[in-house]
Write a structure and sequence with these properties.
alpha+beta; Immunoglobulin-like; AIDA_N; Four Helix Bundle (Hemerythrin (Met), subunit A); 2 domains
């Protein structure tokens, strides 16, 4: 048995374990298993060509599988609706994860691999620093108004498209602040709540801001709201909360 075959069997066993927990209503255990597997898949999907046994096309499929696991995990954590990405949807991927080496059909869901994002296993601490391309490191050296590049916080991928349903993307380019220069490691928390303050979708944090310029803090990120507009309740409120550390604290 080859190492690749052993790896595929390991992934399939983890997938089955997660869906079993999911079907039994053991949601905490299911979320943990999905996140562990998603992290393993994304690590492989982002590996260098000379360190992977998979082709680039196969790694794209692996990345999409990781995205779907994230979507199901996010759906299970929603306080309102666990049907945005259903267990039945996830189970459609089982033949793919078993047969990645020979799979040559169109992926069943309109999703994309999440670029440059680290999925943490439960209980694992996130290391915010990651290596940049050498050219970028040189270009940004010595700039007092540039933040170190960080791995994204908890941004989630775009939901699969559905006929007649509308997706919402919030683009945050920059925020104007009087004391922008005093902000250290600022980020934005995005939540969608009903009139009683109950979260309707998973709360998401942006990466740490990319840079400061005069009275602006720059983010340049897209936040994918994890529920179609038609499924959201009437009268919601969408607060954008700026979080970070201030020199005056």
């Amino acid at each position: 048995m080859t190492e690749v075959t052993k790896l595929l069997q390991k992934w399939h066993a983890s997938f089955q374990k997660g869906t079993d927990f999911d079907s039994w209503g053991q949601l905490v255990e299911a979320i943990d298993e999905y996140q562990i597997l998603a992290r393993q898949l994304q690590k492989e999907a982002q590996s260098q060509p000379n360190s992977s046994e998979f082709t680039e096309d196969q790694k794209k499929i692996i990345g999409k599988l990781a995205t779907c696991l994230e979507l199901r995990s996010a759906a299970l954590q929603s306080t309102q609706n666990q049907e945005d990405f259903r267990l039945e949807d996830l189970k459609k991927l089982e033949p793919i994860i078993k047969n990645i080496l020979t799979y040559n059909k169109e992926f069943p869901f309109d999703v994309q691999p999440v670029p440059l994002r680290k999925i943490l296993a439960p209980g694992e601490e996130e290391n915010l620093e990651f290596e940049e391309e050498e050219e970028d490191s040189v270009a940004g050296a010595g700039s007092p108004d540039s933040f170190p590049v960080r791995i994204p916080g908890t941004l989630l991928p775009r939901l699969p498209s559905e006929p007649g349903m509308t997706l919402l993307t919030i683009k945050i380019e920059k925020i104007g602040l009087k004391d922008a220069g005093q902000c250290i490691d600022p980020y934005i928390t995005v939540s969608v709540k009903d009139l009683n303050g109950v979260d309707l979708t998973p709360v998401q944090d942006t990466p740490v801001a990319s840079r400061k310029e005069d009275t602006y803090v720059h983010f340049n990120v897209d936040i994918e709201i994890q529920k179609h507009i038609e499924k959201l309740m009437q009268g919601i409120k969408n607060p954008l909360i700026l979080k970070g550390r201030s020199c005056s604290c």
